[in-house]
Amino acid sequence: MTYEFHKLLMLYKSHRLTFPVENLLIVEGFPSVWWLTQMQLPNVVGLIGWAMSEEQAKIVTDLVSPSGRVWVIPDGNEAGVKCAHSVFEHLGTSRFIQWSRLEEGKQPTDYPGGWLRERLR
Fold first, then answer.
1. Which domain holds residue 21?
2. Beta bridge partners of 64
3. In terms of Cα–Cα distance, which of 41, 50, 42 is closest to 84?
4. Is 10 within the bounds of a domain?
5. How many structural domains does the chain have?
6. CB atoms inside a 10 Å sphere around CB 116
7. Engineered SS bond to 68: which of 22, 24, 50, 111, CB 3.0-4.6 Å?
8. Is 65 part of any domain?
9. In the Cβ-directed half-sphere of 5, how many Cα atoms lie within 13 Å?
């Protein structure tokens, strides 16, 4: 038996969430998920790259209540901009989305938890 991994068919750590959630944080990779979770920011998932697929958008739509909010916190680089645009493209008509844009060259792991919590108000 051979198992295949298709990163566009899943969201990293989505299986750990109890849905529906009111706020969901979407980041690009594993380290950002780990960091935000350690900083006690709940409901964080990772795209495992910068592109969101239709399948991932369906997972998010099922996770986030219709009145909920999706926070996109991509890296502060060109891939991060592509990531935010990809999330808006796939979810913009079904959920409220807020892009928390980081400084150029920075990642969520470069910021302390308190600073991040303040940004997400």
1. 17-102+109-119
2. 21
3. 50
4. no
5. 1
6. 20
7. 22
8. yes
9. 4
CA separation for the pair 113, 38 (Å, rounded) = 8
Residue reference for tokens 């108000």: 121
Which tokens belong to 14?
């989505």
Judge whether 9 lies within some domain: no
pLDDT band at 109 (very low <50, low <70, confident <90, very high): very high
Please name which of 116, 91, 93 lies closest in space to residue 40, comparing C-alpha atoms. 116
Q: What is the pTM assigned to this prediction?
A: 0.93
Which is nearest to 72 in space by CA: 60, 61, 83, 58?
83
pLDDT over 90 (residue 34): yes
Does some domain include residue 2? no
Write the CATH number for 60: 3.40.1360.10
Report the C-alpha gap between 116 and 110 in whole angstroms. Answer: 10
The helix/strand/coil state of 61 is helix
